[in-house]
Amino acid sequence: MDDRTPIQDTPLTVAGRTLHSRLIIGTGKYQSYEQNARALEASGAQMITVALRRVNLSDPSQPRLVDHIDPQKYVFLPNTAGCFTGEDAVRTLRLAREAGGWSLVKLEVLSDPKHLYPDMAETLRATDMLVKEGFDVMVYCSDDPVYARKLEDAGACAIMPLGAPIGSGLGIQNPVNIRLIIEEAKVPVIVDAGVGTASDAAVAMELGCDGVLMNTAIAEAKDPVRMARAMKHAVIAGREAYLAGRMAKKRYADPSSPLAGLI
Amino acid sequence: METSNPRANCSAPASAVDVYVNGELRSLPAGLTLSSALEHLGLDPRKVAVERNLEIAPRSGYDQISIETGDRLEIVHFVGGG
């Protein structure tokens, strides 16, 4: 046992914004915006991803996200879901910046709708374009440490490698790579996509990630509000375990009670 | 179906203009500003963003931008997404 003072944690800060929760949640796939709002409340998250889409002209009175989730209270992170080129992403985020009035965005440039894996060459090009336009860009990316470095060099304000394919709920498939990315990065690393249940989020945080972004794991749980609460605790638990520093793994048993003084 | 010059179909003076709104051809009263066009469409200008002919329409300029025949408007808002 050593007597080091406990490691004090500092909150997650992305592009100058301080977040008191390391959990970021998506707002897609919920049964209603009302359910979404309740899950968000239960999750304790302060940042949510949102998409930008055409308004419904045939029924302008349809429920609106901003009527249920207050942009003054939560940080809205507009995404580029559905964009397949840098130009599409820039066009979408220029509109998002006008709609919201802020420049912090999530870039995702996908390739094939079947696996939704990011097109990394195009993602890097789009990052460069957006940074030059003054955006603060959090970048969804593959778990490739080489590309993660290139994104950081291009000015990404957060690196967001996937844990597993979007919406798959398979958990962290390549902890070795995620760990390498964390060790190399000087900007926050947030696992984005692939979390299926609370233990997956804890695993990501135990690897030393700065945060976890998830959508489907909460939205498609049987009880999304309860799962949101579970995720809140899992992210805290994983972070605490990471900071506490886990014990070494051993090949054999090691009794917890003293062997001396046995009667 | 897009026509190259929708105005060619009507005789002057025009009482309506044909514009593309989110990809759909629509007839709007002539002489609208972007502000009044949004109101006409039942939309709250504070909750949408508009691209006009591939350029962002700055929110501060909605009252100054006049809607012309053949304009292409994209009107978007935030929805749930991951």
Structure description:
The complex is a heterodimer of chains A (263) and B (82). Chain A is of the alpha/beta class and 263 residues long. Chain A is 37% helix and 16% strand. Chain A has nine helices and ten strands. In chain A, the strands form three sheets. In chain A, strands 5-4-3-10-9 form a five-stranded parallel sheet. In chain A, strand 6, helix 4 (120-132) and strand 7 (136-141) form a beta-alpha-beta unit. In chain A, helix 3 (86-100) packs across helix 4 and helix 7 (198-206) packs parallel to helix 9. Chain A is globular and about 85 Å long. Chain B has one helix at residues 34-40; strands at 16-21, 24-29, 49-52, 55-57, 72-80. Chain B has 82 residues and is mainly β. The mean pLDDT of chain B is 88. Chain A binds chain B through residues 26-30, 33, 36, 49-55, 57, 60-61, 64-66, 76, 78-79, 81, 91, 94-96, 98-100, 166-167, 193, 215-216, and chain B through 21-24, 26, 41-43, 47-51, 54, 56-59, 74-82.
